[in-house]
Amino acid sequence: MSDELTRALQELASAHETPPPVTGPAIRARARRRARRSTAVALGGAATAVALLAFAVTRNAEEPAPRNHPPAAAPVTPATPPLVPSPTPSPTRAVPAVGEIDLTRHTLTVGGRTLKLATGFDKLPRITGPLTVDQKSGTRTLTVTNAADGTRYNAVITAVVELRDATGRSVYIGASDSYNADDIGTHELADGWLALDQADAKWFYGEANPGAVLAVVDASTPAA
């Protein structure tokens, strides 16, 4: 028999050889080793799970909680408008006088022309100047009082220019056909009427314009 055939038969016999019987203590020892290996594997897996859980909890605690709503906007303070100084009112300028009434001399001077007034100023309430032309009435009816007996009459005045004194009282300049101008202030009294003759009254009526100012001079007016 050749050597190669001998080795082949030996290998075949070894492969089909029945393993030697294992005693009971050996079997139990193997079982204990397998149990220890299983326990070690189980404990290792549990430790790994605990470590992963602790890592996750720690990471979540360190991360800020997500914001569910935007932060409240800061209140908007309205801009304060710049201070604009109030305009200073312009001082009222006095209107220059275009003429003058002299209560002492009984004259009316306008445009370089002096007119004679017939009214007796001492019989009238004081006129507080200046006088301002208010309107031109044309014709007006005024009450005239007889100085002798107190009888009152209605006199029709023509070419009437109505003026206002500083207190707002009405003063009229005009002429009447019913009375002699020389008698006005001597025999008849007309409150607030400064009489001119017909020609002078018509001339002044044409010259007077609303808003024109006449200065008033009397004995109490201080010298310039």
What do you see in this structure?
It is a single chain. The model has no long low-confidence stretch (mean pLDDT 74). This protein is 28% helix and 27% strand. It is built from 3 helices and 9 strands; from the N terminus they run ααββββββββαβ. Strands 1, 2, 3, 4, 5, 6, 7, 8 and 9 form a 9-stranded mixed β-sheet that branches. The termini are far apart.
Q: Report the CATH superfamily of the domain at 97-217.
A: L,D-transpeptidase catalytic domain-like
- Radius of gyration over C-alpha positions, nearest whole angstrom: 67 Å
By DSSP (H or I, 4+ residues per run), the number of helices equals 3
Please estimate the helix content.
25-40%
- Report how far apart the termini are: 177 Å
The average pLDDT score comes to 74
Q: Identify the CATH class of the domain at 97-217.
A: Mainly Beta
N-to-C SSE series? HHEEEEEEEEHE
Total strand segments? 9
The residue ranges in which pLDDT falls below 50 over 5 or more consecutive positions are none
Biased composition (Pro residues): 67-90
Region (Disordered): 1-33, 62-94
Transmembrane segments: 38-57
InterPro entries: Transpep_catalytic_dom (IPR038063)
Task: Supply the key terms.
rod-shaped; Transpep_catalytic_dom; 28% helix; transmembrane helix; 224 residues; alpha+beta
How would you summarize this macromolecular structure in one to three sentences?
The chain crosses the membrane at residues 38-57. The protein is α+β, with helices and mostly antiparallel strands.
